Amino acid sequence: MTASALDAAGVLRLVIFDCDGVLIDSEGPSNHLIAELAREAGLSMSGAEAEARFAGKALPQVQRELEAESGCDLGAGWVDDVQDRLVVLMRHAAEPIDGAGAMLAGLRDLGVPHRVGSNSSVDEMEAKFGRVGFVDHFPATRVHSARDMGRPKPDPHVYRHAASVEGVAPSQCVVIEDSDTGVAAAHDAGMACVLLRAAGPLPPHVWPGLRRIGHLDELVPLLRDVLRSQGR
């Protein structure tokens, strides 16, 4: 069995971040918009309920669930319309997750390459990173959208693609995730994963390559210890 990127016997070559809930605090505004659209379809749903239900899910899945529950046909253009509205919203509503800026600076000092793989579109991520000042950390060539690829998580394709572009094996990558959907994608990609979740249950996918932290300020020390254990 190949050693995990977080094991002393492994090799850590790439950190791949999810975007929403890990780097960018956008789930609240995004899901308030989803709740508004759900109410337009005749459903009673608060922003908090939408966040609990849809966090980490791609818009096509959200549409299918809303249509199944409401009995309404939201239309072929619903996903694209919501996506356009999210891009506009994120230009003024996105905020960094607490500790994200300092963590990214520390990761750069460690010298470990990093990329982002998200169910958000590239346009949406560019709006978010532009708003919070993370563009230098994530130029367009290091941003990968599962939505734009047509294979949203839990499909592992976006993570495997990021590793391939970097020229490293999946076993040499660690994914930073906050949702069960994303953790499943990391697991199926054959990658280690750090779950950013201060409280609550572990996801259904639990394996030796999964670690858990409660705050982003724990990530750089964790990765520094991993690199030291690997003799680097």
UniProtKB/TrEMBL annotation:
<dbReference type="InterPro" id="IPR006439">
    <property type="entry name" value="HAD-SF_hydro_IA"/>
</dbReference>
<dbReference type="Pfam" id="PF00702">
    <property type="entry name" value="Hydrolase"/>
</dbReference>
<keyword id="KW-0460">Magnesium</keyword>
<dbReference type="InterPro" id="IPR023198">
    <property type="entry name" value="PGP-like_dom2"/>
</dbReference>
<keyword id="KW-0479">Metal-binding</keyword>
<dbReference type="InterPro" id="IPR023214">
    <property type="entry name" value="HAD_sf"/>
</dbReference>
<protein>
    <submittedName>
        <fullName>Phosphatase</fullName>
    </submittedName>
</protein>
<dbReference type="InterPro" id="IPR051600">
    <property type="entry name" value="Beta-PGM-like"/>
</dbReference>
<dbReference type="GO" id="GO:0003824">
    <property type="term" value="F:catalytic activity"/>
</dbReference>
<dbReference type="GO" id="GO:0046872">
    <property type="term" value="F:metal ion binding"/>
</dbReference>
<dbReference type="InterPro" id="IPR036412">
    <property type="entry name" value="HAD-like_sf"/>
</dbReference>
<comment type="similarity">
    <text>Belongs to the HAD-like hydrolase superfamily. CbbY/CbbZ/Gph/YieH family.</text>
</comment>
